[in-house]
Amino acid sequence: MNFLKLFLVALAPVLNTLFIAVIGAVLALDNIGILKKNTKKHLNIIVYFVFTPALLYSSLAKTITLRSLGMLWFMPLNILLRYIIGTTLAWILAKITRVPRHLHGLVMGCCAAGNLGSLPLIIVPAICKGRSHPFGDVDACYRKGLAFTSLTMAVGHIYAWSIVYNILRIYSPKINIVKFNDNKINIEVNNLENIAKCSARTLTTTEEKSMSNGCVDRPEIECKVIDDEEEKVQEKLKNMKALQILLSDKINLKELFAPALWGAIFGVIVGIVPRLKKVLVTEHAPLHFVQTSAIMLGDACIPSTILLVGANLLNGLKGLRKKIPLVVGIIVVIYIALPTIGICIVKGAVHFNFISSDPLYQFVLLLHYAVPPAVSASTMTQLLGVGQSECSLIMFATYSSAPILLTLWCTVFMWLVL
């Protein structure tokens, strides 16, 4: 197939995604008011606890086998390489653009964690269902593509919440309460931006205290600013307790062992155990209604996720001019540097016979390097309370560029693997 036909094949699923995202943005407008803040929160909870695990379970249980699982060993390594390379390039970008320290983790997280969930699950099956797709039989392409993208989503979810979440947590501003009495609170501040907040709060509390005619009815707040050297010494002293702190972090463990992960685990178990597959998955299985119900719930995952992405992108319209160098740098990393490096990695793996010669499998591996940031990065910033507006800005810029840049890379990838 020539380049123009491949471009049209790749353009269709990206336009589908863009159209649904625009609908989500329209529904979130103040004049419409359908996807309000509470509505988005509840829909996000349903997607997180119901739709996503149902999609992973139904697709993996139907398509994964023990043989295919052994052939896909390179996929988790490929995604890990994307995380490592993206983090390294983002660290260099943060140094060049002189991003504030508390935003370093956000920049690295957005460049490392790609949207390996909804976008591949839309793009690959949609290409297989296209009229002139280049990957052979439609049904076989769809089944394999769904298996590849479902496993991609499961592995990407684990990496995102075990790697990116901790990167964001490390770079988040720390305000540690040292001492608490009836009339005094000592606070340590190790981020420059919190010095002004702490000082302002101290002045306000002092003023309120002076207006009480000598009666102490407000706690006195004393702020202690920690310089870089003192912070390094304290960090060294806390290294021995790092593992204990990590294991006691309830949010981190809760998100790492999320419903999506359990859906993927159960799907793989059912897929690789023939007896379970005969009971649950095949057409004449006695419990086939379980598989059918999971498929129905899973079908709602992708459109719901894209609607939420479109609704959240509206927040990124604010403050775009102030951070143009950073936004341009992130777009260069995501849509130029990472895909170029990804081509070298995947083609090198094919050359040394590390992966099979299946064109669809190679296309999915290449697609890992060209997708915009993961939506979960926005959720993490909300959990940690840092960089929320900057994250919305990055999401808006990268997803607005996707219809052109992602389509071009999908075209190049199909041209390379055929």
In short:
With 418 residues, this protein is mainly alpha-helical. It has 19 helices and 3 strands.
What does this structure look like?
The protein is mainly alpha-helical and 418 residues long. The protein has one domain (3-172, 287-417): Na+/H+ antiporter like fold (Up-down Bundle). The protein contains 19 helices and 3 strands. A 3-stranded mixed β-sheet has the order 1-2-3, covered by helices on one side. Helix 18 (376-384) runs antiparallel to helix 19. The chain is globular, with a radius of gyration of 24 Å.
- Biggest sheet statistics: 3 strands, mixed
Task: Give the count of structural domains.
Answer: 1
Query: Roughly how many Å is the radius of gyration?
Result: 24 Å
Strand order of the largest sheet: 1-2-3
State the shape.
globular
Alpha-carbon distance between the termini?
A: 9 Å
How many alpha or pi helices?
19
Number of strands: 3
Q: Tell me the strand percentage band.
A: under 5%
Q: Could you say what the CATH architecture is? A: Up-down Bundle
In N-to-C order, the SSE pattern is HHHHHHHEEHEHHHHHHHHHHH
Helix content: over 70%
Oligomer: single chain
- The CATH class name reads Mainly Alpha
Taking pLDDT < 50 over at least 5 consecutive residues as the criterion, the unreliable ranges are 175-226, 242-252
Estimated structural class: mainly alpha
Pfam families: Mem_trans
Family: Belongs to the auxin efflux carrier (TC 2.A.69.2) family.
Membrane topology: Multi-pass membrane protein
Subcellular location: Endoplasmic reticulum membrane
